[in-house]
Amino acid sequence: MRAKPSLCISARIVSTAAALFVTAFALKAPAQRADLTSADRAAGRSTSALQALQDGRVEDATALARATLTSDPADAFAHQILCRAFYAEDRADDAVRECEAAVAVPQSAQASSENQLWLGRAYGLKARHAGPINGFKLAKRVQVSFAKAVELNGSNVAALSDLGEYYVSAPSIVGGSTDRAKALAGTMMPRFPAQAHLLLARIAVEAGDAGAAEAEFKQVIALQKNTQSWVDLAAFYETHHRKAEAVAAVKVGLALDRTHGPAIVDAASVLIAAHAEPELAEKCLRLYLGSKAKTDEAPAFKVYVQLSRLLAARGLSAEAGAQMQAAAVLAPVFTRGSRQWQGL
Fold this sequence. Notes:
CATH superfamily of the largest domain: Tetratricopeptide repeat domain
Shape: globular
CATH class of the largest domain: Mainly Alpha
Number of strands: 0
CATH architecture of the largest domain: Alpha Horseshoe
Radius of gyration: 19 Å
Number of helices: 19
Mean pLDDT: 87
Structural class: mainly alpha
Number of domains: 2
CATH topology of the largest domain: Serine Threonine Protein Phosphatase 5, Tetratricopeptide repeat
Distance between the termini: 32 Å
Low-confidence stretches: 1-34, 41-46, 340-344
């Protein structure tokens, strides 16, 4: 459940204030993606704005959500969509503003839990650029929002996982605690055993116990037997410089893939980080972009940028430029900034 090296799933305080957990929350943990998609479905809000967001068309999603708010300024879901669109574009202040507006509207416990989850993530994104004092304040807000999301809906697996990640990653001065993380994993185990073992793996990684972490990742595989669980193990291997095992785990996971969803973007990210099999990484990214399983947990425009970088590294500059153009159609504000650091 470590933060992945990909753009889609683009952290510790006091030194840089909550640069703290930024990697963990500014980039979402992939194991939570299916749960968030399920929450959207459960809310019964298959709006055009949501569909645009899932497709990666953030400009369209933003325009549609704003149109909804013009007629109903208290539409909490429209505010949440705006929050998520801005979050995807790394626009922290805008994301926080919209999520705070969503949280302010009375909702069902389930809907309020989702709004609190996204507010916590928006605070985490903002913490990336905060100094020590503001970072400290934001860190506490992240914890409060995640805890509130869990309080409102104890079945919100994404909120449980994010709260657990916070406990693991954050310093004790802002509420980080291995003991709390272990207790939360114990609470999750009866109903959500795979996510509980994933949290235990993160605890073991943080403690430097690679053997225990590997065993926990394998427990997740035994329970879920899906692409994401194998990719999570592969990511663990990659960070521990076990390249051959990382590539092998990716390939096992890809053999199980049927939907071409966000898990294969993470698979590509592991291969890229390992400097291995660039053609397979490219195939994964292209399959995702052509699929109907895209979500804002792996924003399509960021995947286009990732593909562009991969192609550029292989000397395919014309094709790399074409991918950046595709990203620009979906998210022109984001890609203008991306060109500056990418040199395209």
